[in-house]
UniProtKB/TrEMBL annotation, chain A:
GO terms for biological process: peptide transport; protein transport; transmembrane transport. This is ABC-type dipeptide/oligopeptide/nickel transport system permease subunit. It comes from Novispirillum itersonii. The chain crosses the membrane at residues 20-45, 89-114, 134-160, 202-232, 252-281. Its main location: membrane. Belongs to the binding-protein-dependent transport system permease family.
TrEMBL record, chain B:
The lineage of its organism: Bacteria, Pseudomonadati, Pseudomonadota, Alphaproteobacteria, Rhodospirillales. This is ABC-type dipeptide/oligopeptide/nickel transport system permease component. Residues 95-292 form the ABC transmembrane type-1 domain. It comes from Novispirillum itersonii. One of its GO terms (biological process) is transmembrane transport. It is found in: Cell membrane. Its main location: membrane.
């Protein structure tokens, strides 16, 4: 199993088509910037507080006062979506940052030192491939107890194998290059070679994959939230909003539709913008070489 | 080839054992005592110990694991704590629904994905290509459960064409299959498109054109055939996506299945059911990956040599 998985990251990456770039990339970059801006300045931008209930205005459709309508407690959906951007984006980013850092560390050590340490570690990490990401995350959150911290950790573990594999492949490919040998002949230690020579050259594709994975992580967070495993009420993550809204799907569909739309939009923005960066940096060739 | 098949199957055995350890351990790390869910308030510690002994929860972990593993290998996952029935019966009742949904979703992903990908590649950089790839982009970015809810809203509630949920009639399968399959379809279409464009640039394709082979025959008979190898790899690696997708979609459509069984058991802290379902789902992923490897090796003899 490990053999086919080893080539998988590179093969999949090489083959994922990049039909969008140019103007599309620019628009999506701007959209992403806007989302981050909204998330940062949520308290200034939201017309109402995210937990302000108005029991006289329950389940109202979108109107001039509540652009996206109100939910089952009479809370303004627009305000909750704006605050939700904070939770969803920061959970996605933190989880991927955590996962990528751990993956880069483990992958670099495995790729550089090889041997039995590498085999055992990678076998353990490959085990996570046997469980679909969503299952792994669901079970981990169940173990750690529902909440945002466990969501971050669960998502980070779900993507750990991918980052470890990718970094390991990169480092292994670079290890044999002449400049590494030269540096070793000059008396450089392992730490110097790893930090100064191997990682800077190995990281470009890892960073792009990290960016693309952030989209997946936001999706995963939404799914966990939908199962009631993520942000706990009244905290408004997009997934949690859809979860509570789904009970009223037939009466107030906008409570479900609108957060989902924002999840989809942010994932599209991240993917297209990531693809555009990938094309611009031409990291595809580096990955191919690995 | 027989040699290769055997080696791949043997290679799965240690993986299987590690997976059983993980499945066993995961569930024992969960906080919350299943006995507390089982007994009424006011029960004496002696009575609790008696119940713990009945389910073997008082023994050291490695003994519990060994006992569990020997039973699992005989197809016995123990008794569900909350539902008070053999876990194997529950799995047997539900697995058919999951296999139907997963299998059909896989077929949907493959057929629709390859077709649309090939069409997009044949009319590359035209409006056809751009609109197909646009839909594909949407398909891979929408949360599956959200798509499921929207489809329910549109086709079941507003139009009234299809049932909202359940599994009583075959029409109840249409929406779940589309929901699960769309993510996979998007990936397959993308990979088919790029792969066909890559192959199309090779010399033998130019030669075929020069020999006067009709353009459609070059595309369908030669280019598509070569282009399918990475698609098969992708499909087998994405088995997990389909299995995982089924879990959420079963829940949304209130369909019976291993996924909804697992979600319910997680909420109730019903260890044996969680273990049984997780092991089933992990095995589905392992077998799917294996089948994918084998199909790939059958299509591309170089793969068989590489793994020696």
């Amino acid at each position: 199993m490990s053999l086919s998985l080893k080539t998988q990251g590179a093969a999949t990456l090489r083959l994922l088509g990049k039909p969008f770039g140019g103007i599309g990339g620019a628009i999506c970059g701007a959209g992403l910037g806007l989302f981050i801006f909204v998330a940062l300045f949520a308290p200034l931008l939201a017309p109402y507080a995210y937990d302000a209930q108005d029991l006289a205005r329950i389940g109202l459709p979108p109107s001039a006062e509540n652009w996206f309508g109100t939910d089952e407690f009479g809370r303004d959906v627009l305000s909750r979506v704006i605050y939700g951007a904070r939770i969803s984006l920061s959970v996605g980013l933190t989880a991927v940052a955590l996962s990528a850092s751990a993956g880069i560390l483990i992958g670099a050590l495995c790729g550089y030192f090889g041997g039995r340490f590498d085999r055992i570690t990678m076998a353990a990490i490959d085990l996570t491939w046997c469980f679909p990401e969503i299952l792994l995350a669901l079970v981990l959150v169940a173990i750690l107890g529902p909440g945002l911290n466990s969501t971050v950790i669960a998502i980070a573990v779900a993507y750990l194998a991918q980052f470890t594999r990718l970094t390991r492949t990169q480092v292994r490919a670079l290890k044999g290059e002449t400049f590494v040998e030269v540096s070793r002949c000059l008396g450089a230690g392992h730490a110097h070679i790893l930090l100064r020579h191997l990682l800077p050259n190995a990281l470009a594709p890892v960073i792009v994959v990290a960016m693309l994975t952030t989209g997946d992580a936001i999706l995963l967070e939404a799914t966990l939230g939908f199962f009631g495993m993520g942000a706990q009420p009244p905290t408004p993550s997009w997934g949690a909003m859809m979860s509570s809204g789904s009970a009223q799907l037939f009466n107030a569909p906008w409570v479900v539709i609108i957060p989902g739309l924002f999840v989809a939009l942010s994932v599209i923005f991240i993917n297209v913008y990531g693809d555009a960066i990938l094309a611009a940096l031409d990291v595809k060739n580096r990955i191919r070489r690995a | 080839m027989a040699d290769y098949v055997l080696r791949r199957i043997l290679a799965l055995i240690p993986v299987f054992f590690f997976v059983t350890v993980v499945v066993f351990m995961i569930v024992h790390l969960v906080p919350g005592d299943p006995i507390d869910n089982l007994v009424r308030i006011g029960v004496t510690p002696e009575q609790k110990a008696l119940i713990a002994a009945r389910y073997g929860l008082d023994q050291p972990l490695y003994l519990q694991y060994w006992r569990w593993l020997t039973l699992v290998l005989q197809g016995d996952f123990g008794s569900a704590i909350v539902l008070r029935r053999p876990v194997m019966d529950l799995i047997r009742e539900n697995i058919g629904y999951s296999l139907t949904l997963g299998g059909l979703a896989l077929c949907f992903s493959a057929l629709v994905g390859i077709t649309t990908g090939a069409i997009a590649a044949a009319w590359r950089n035209t409006l056809v290509d751009k609109s197909i790839m646009g839909v594909v982009l949407l398909g891979s970015t929408v949360p599956a459960f959200w798509l499921g809810l929207l489809l329910i809203l549109l086709f079941a509630v507003t139009l009234g064409w299809l049932p909202v949920s359940g599994a009583k009639h075959w029409t109840a399968l249409i929406l779940p299959v589309v929901t699960v399959g769309l993510g996979g379809m998007a990936l397959v279409a993308r990979v088919t498109r790029v792969s066909m464009m890559d192959i199309g640039r090779q010399d033998f394709v130019t030669l075929l054109h020069a020999k006067g082979v009709p353009a459609w025959a070059v595309q369908v008979r030669h280019v598509l055939r070569h282009a399918l190898i990475p698609v098969v790899t992708l499909l087998s690696l994405r088995i997990g996506l389909i299995v995982g997708g089924s879990v959420t979609v079963e829940y949304v459509f209130a369909r019976p299945g291993i996924g909804s069984l697992l979600i319910r058991a997680l909420g109730q802290r019903d260890y044996p059911v969680v273990q049984g379902c997780l092991l089933m789902l992990a095995m589905a992923v392992m077998i799917g990956t294996l089948l994918g490897d084998l199909v790939q090796a059958a299509m591309d003899p170089r793969q068989r040599e590489e793994s020696r």
